[in-house]
Amino acid sequence: MYEDLRWLGLRWTEGPDCGGHCAPYSQSQRRERYLEAWRTLRDQEVIYPCTCSRRELAAVVSAPNDSDDEPLYPGTCRQRRDARVYETPSGVNWRFRIPDGEAITFTDQRLGGQTFTAGRDFGDFVIWRRDDVPAYQIAVTVDDALMNITEVVRGADLLKSTARQILLFRALGYRVPDYYHCDLVRDASGLRMAKRHDSASIRALRERGLGSQQILQEAERLTQ
User: Fold this and answer.
1) Fewest CB within a 10 Å sphere: which of 7, 101, 138, 201?
2) Is residue 203 part of a domain?
3) Which domain holds residue 130?
């Protein structure tokens, strides 16, 4: 990926391959930072241990594959108040207890005002998995805060996740960055380009003989 991005002409001054003042940049090396955030949320009792199995949650309707969304959690373990007895997060899923009915609002730098209602648009979400791995929502929130990120630019499929992350920023006492959500690049059939759909990678396009400027021009055309 590094090689392909450099071939496209992209340059960066921080990252796993070149270091920087916010190192380390690999999430596998940032575990203690995530654990500190988990302890803060545990002590506030805004998260709770969830012992629901996959089989028990299987009846919940799954979100479409073209989104980052997860099904609304039915609330089976929601009333648990034993978070503080856990010394480590391993062995159970940990869910953030959302403020039911609260409208989470923010202004997207491209799409304008956005509002998502907790409990209707999204439910209690996982911040730490039972296999002892921090989930996406807490990892990116902690990283953005501790790396002093001022603007997050990402795909529109993560728009709703911004509302979840705002709740985490608030609970952890972090400043919320600005957000800019881009349109997704899609193929001729309208399907978003992704590895799961075996979409053409930069490397594959290179091997077909396309030049870097051709790829950049086509990407610009597709997003207009």
Assistant:
1) 101
2) no
3) 20-182
Q: Which helix (H) or strand (E) holds 112?
A: strand 112-117
pLDDT in tens, 70-104: 789 999 999 999 999 999 999 999 999 999 999 99
The reply to whether 78 falls in a domain is: yes
Quick check: is 120 in a domain?
Answer: yes
Number of helices (H) and strands (E) in the chain: give both, helices first: 7, 7
The reply to whether omega before 24 is within 30° of 0 (cis) is yes
108: DSSP letter: E
Instruction: For 135-158, write each residue's pLDDT tens digit.
Output: 999 999 999 999 999 999 999 999
Burial of 33 (0-12, 13-18, 19+ CB in 10 A): middle
Residue 206 corresponds to which amino acid? R
Q: 22 and 14 in contact (C-beta within 8 Å)?
A: yes
Q: How far apart are CA 54 and CA 48, in angstroms?
A: 17
Q: How is residue 99 written in tokens?
A: 């403020």
CB 8 within 8 A of CB 202: yes
Residue 132: CB atoms within 10 A of its CB come to 12
**CB distance 172 to 140 below 8 Å:** no
CATH number of the domain within which 171 lies: 3.40.50.620
How many domains does the chain fold into? 1
Q: For residue 181, how many C-alpha atoms fall within 13 Å in the half-sphere facing its CB?
A: 16
